[in-house]
Amino acid sequence: MRVLTIPPPAAGHVSAMVPLCWALRAAGHDVLVAGQPDALPVARAAGLNTAEVGALTELTNELSKYMPPELFPAPVFGMRDTDMGRMAWEMTARERVGHAERHLDDYLRVAAAWEPDIILSEPITVVSRVLGGALGIPVVCLRWGVDPTAGPFEDTAQAMLKPLCEQHGLPGLPPYDLVIDPCPPSLQVLDAPAGERFRYVPHNGAGVLPEWATVRASRPRVCVCLGGTIMTLTGPAPLLNLLEALSGLDVEVIAALTPANREAAAPLPFDVRVVESLPLNLFLDTCDLLAHHGGSGTGLTATSLGVPQLVLPQFADEFDYGARLAEAGAGITIPDQAGQRDIDGIRHAVQRLLAEPDFRLGARKLQEELQTAPPLTSAVPLLEALV
After folding, report:
1. Using CA atoms, how far apart are residues 308 and 194, in angstroms rounded to an integer?
2. Beta-carbon neighbour count of residue 131 at 10 Å?
3. What number of other Cβ atoms are within 10 A of residue 61's Cβ?
4. Parallel, antiparallel, or unpaired for β 289-292 and 118-121?
5. What is the CB-side half-sphere exposure of residue 123 using CA atoms within 13 A?
6. 40: burial class by Cβ within 10 Å (0-12, 13-18, 19+)?
7. Is 80 exceeded by the pLDDT of residue 324?
8. Which stretch of DSSP H or E encloses residue 337?
């Protein structure tokens, strides 16, 4: 079986697809990751073959035209039942539709050369559904985590892509043939269409276990992580606000940063232990708290290890992630701009998360829920059956 994998140009989304690609390779199937240059380094580092389609930083460039750093955080993304929230997701869908219109022919050329049997994609890469329909092969959606693309995103994609679909003999945008969902039900948004549940497998790259991570710290250890791409939109403010809040507490701070994020935030406000591109799952189990932006890859890694979380969401699904995490009792979310600029308020939230045992109990319950799902390897026969 040949599996054409189509991710968006966001490193975290590509990382979420790697474990299933590994499972497919281990079962003897061929996997090719086709995407924009932004997506491919993660895939190649994971030992996967790639094909380049499109231009560098297309997604970030398009979004930055409409959303300069001063507009973040953008909590309207967590309000899909309002006019402004609907407009925010419609904007996101239009960007992904534009990508499909510009690059469908490029993907068709890759497919003509490689002849896939099935396509593996994820919720926002809508070009995969047009491609699968045009080729007459199944398309599988692997969710990266919390998935709020039902409603305005899906409605807009269907309406705008109808002409392109008709050009290829399709009545409209085809549905996915299978949805694989690694997100625990207690975290998943309530309106997400049902999917086949499987266990989340963290993939944060590869690294060397540092000596300090082999033991628990003598004081609370807090990890700060803003992911790999969100700071290209927001600038360093979310990271600096978190670090300033932590500077007044008796805690050990681990800042997990990409080299670009570290440079953007320099100089850091106080002495923190900075780790560059070190996999979170290599050391996060020694931490008492993870403070982050609400990316599902970052958050579900903490969930898999039973670590409470403080979420400062900035964009898109991050607001739904923070809200659902708080509802599950496993953390606190601060979604609004005023709250994220209130250093004393952030500091108080950290103190609560470290002092109140109910948050760790909530995190452990989510961990148990995640671990009871079937292993991701058992998803492979479902793809084989589709072919």
Report:
1. 27
2. 27
3. 13
4. unpaired
5. 24
6. buried
7. yes
8. helix 337-341
Q: Which residue has the tokens 């953007």?
A: 264
Q: Give the model's confidence band at 264: pLDDT under 50 very low, under 70 low, under 90 confident, else very high.
A: confident
Q: Residue 288 half-sphere exposure, CB side, CA atoms within 13 Å?
A: 19
What is the rounded CA–CA span in Å between residue 61 and residue 67? 10
Q: For the chain, how long is the longest CA-to-CA vector?
A: 65
Residue 58 has pLDDT above 60, yes or no: no
DSSP-derived 3-state class of residue 98? helix
Return left, alpha or beta for 196; rule: phi > 0 is left, psi -120 to 50 is alpha, else beta: beta
Helix (H) / strand (E) containing 119: strand 118-121
Q: Helix or strand or coil: residue 170?
A: coil
Q: What domains does the chain contain, in order, with CATH numbers?
A: 2-203+373-386 (3.40.50.2000), 211-371 (3.40.50.2000)
The encoded tokens of residue 180 equal 């694989």
Beta bridge partners of 196: 180
User: Per-residue pLDDT tens for 114-141?
Assistant: 999 999 999 999 999 999 999 999 999 9
Dihedral sign, Cα of residue 61, residue 325, residue 198, residue 227: positive
What are the pLDDT digits (tens) for 155-174? 999 999 999 999 999 999 99
Tokens found for residue 136:
């007459």
Hey, how many other C-beta atoms are within 10 angstroms of the C-beta on 328? Answer: 18
**HEC secondary structure over 286-315:** HCCEEEECCCHHHHHHHHHCCCCEEECCCC
- DSSP alpha helix (H) spans, 115-216: 127-135, 152-167
DSSP state, 237?
H
pLDDT in tens, 29-54: 999 999 988 889 999 999 999 999 97
**Burial class for 182, CB neighbours closer than 10 Å (0-12, 13-18, 19+):** buried
Name, in order, each residue with C-beta under 8 angstroms of 118's C-beta and a sequence gap of 6 or more. 1, 2, 3, 4, 137, 138, 139, 140, 383, 386, 387
pTM, 2 dp: 0.94
